[in-house]
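Hey, resending since the last one bounced:
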Amino acid sequence: MFTSKSKAERTAGQAWDYLSSAMAAAGDSAKETADLAGKAGRKARKASKQSYKLAGKASDKADVAWTRANAAYAALAGRRPPRPWGLIAGVGLLGIAVGWAVASSARAALERQAENEELELAETAVVVTPTYDTK
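The structure tokens again:
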């Protein structure tokens, strides 16, 4: 009766509708939250540090909601998120540093082992002197 393509198109259409309404709601909510955060911020300066902290949390939550809504919008539009090159470079540099430290300690351990073996051989060496028969 229905093909999988039309079902997929219907699902994508519903997702788009849901996302559009969620984005609109998130935008309105973010505006309202920003207004409330601004009012709370003004009152916080007058009232106490605690209300100021709550206003900051409300603003942070609005920012998070807006960021998530934009990420969902971009995902449905087919855009991929950017690669975190800073994190990748940081992890790479950390790996290089750890590798260098391990290689240095391994090299030092091998040198100590070679010195110990050389000392052991020197201590246990048997000196053989040839005997000459005078016949």
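The first helix runs from residue 4 to 46.

Sorry for the duplicate.
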